[in-house]
Amino acid sequence: MKRTLFFFGIVALAGMLLTSCNNSSNQNSGKPLSTDIVKNPNTANGDTDTTNLPKFKFDEEIHDFKRIDEGEKVSYGFKFKNVGKSDLVISDARGSCGCTIADYPKTPIPPNGSGVINVSFNSEGKKGFVSKNVTITANTQPNTKVLVIKAQVKVLEGGDEDK
User: What DSSP string describes 55-81?
Assistant: First the structure.
């Protein structure tokens, strides 16, 4: 009985060792990730040094489209500059609902470089005051930034017009 358990233990251990070292499913397709753009300023003691990180500086973080007609599609470009000391990399820009879509630069923005995050809003099915957020995820500290668009959507026909 002890021999059988010992044998199965050895087989299980060998199986784990063989499968744990299998690197055939390399997610980067053989391309190594560059760590030059990844900087983590956080430490175990809570001290954070952000002096060498990239930093957003937006011309404006809230845009008001004022009065628009229901069904109208409007867009705005949020202009920004990287005022930090290393490349700024945006990994995602997500609207708070399906009616708000953001398009962002897919390449790193160097220090003193600039870019635009284009936000489109479809007012179909909306009425009254509308406020939507776009959350930007980047290699900044903190790693998210929220941009806001607002509008007063006027219903054209078949509904009550909001003031």
Answer: -EEES-SEEEEEEEETT-EEEEEEEEE
